[in-house]
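Chapter review: from sequence to fold.
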Amino acid sequence: MNNNALLAAQKLARGEVIGLPTETVYGLAADAQNPSAVGHIYALKNRPTTHPLITHIAAGADIHYWLDDARLTDEMMDLMNALTEAFWPGPLTLVLPKSPNIDATVTGGQDTIALRCPNHDMAQAVLRELAHLQNTPNVGIAAPSANRFGRVSPTRAAHVLDEFDHQVWVLDGDASVIGIESTIIDLTRGAPVLLRHGHITPDDIFNVTGLLPVENQINAPRASGTMLAHYAPATPLVWASETTGEMACLYFSDDFDVSRFKQCLKLDNNPKSYARHLYHSLREMDAWGVARIAVENLPNDSAWNAVRDRLKRAIVGSNLNQTPT
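The token string follows.
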């Protein structure tokens, strides 16, 4: 692993973009402090340059290097310390005031920065090797999901290679164990604001801080994965309750009626397991060549909110520019 991590770090230090494994999904990674390399991420993904990236930092790194302490209130500091102690390394991204020394290319031009500490041995090894190569502990890796903008996120190295037709070198770190992107919490408003659902739930945040995050209503600051159309396969998705006719289906209930579908794939009736396998399943079903994929409606339970969020956006994205049939 060390040799592969060193090679990955060497590529990042040279300004290259690589595929990087994390516990959430695979990222399209570049040195967060190299604006040219970060710009290459946007170009490869065909991602709007106003859409911010998440910067990944090493366990134990000085988070204040990335922050404007003059704008960091006591309330922000207390929340940041509590949440990083509880959930880092892990699938939680925090939005905080950006240091003026950090180029705004990585933040989509905003004066806030999204920071995460990945809970993945290979990702952490790459960060350590990059710090050694650059002779500073203050390194960061910008790494949005390694897919074309708006498409299904990758959870395996093979997905990244398929997505970019071998245009980028990929560090293989096995399948992502969480399978969906990190929870994003904005701390710049004096209380936690939920910008994106993820593995870490609002109840988890409440249990640590005593504050239940409120849902974002103003779309500012901008954050990754919050567009109405996102995470979309090429095959149009529809909720199973809203469809008729022959097509494939993705389901989880033992009593779900599969008889009216041509081909089906079953996931576990558990939100975390469902999330772990969701993107891989959508990619697999995309290759079936069916006209539509019907998705069994999810339980009306907050534990399913992160999966529900991804599927709602995938349904919108997969049906854009489709001719009604």
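Two observations follow directly from the output. The two ends are 50 Å apart (CA to CA). Helices lie at 2-13, 35-45, 74-87, 121-134, 157-164, 202-209, 271-286, 305-318.
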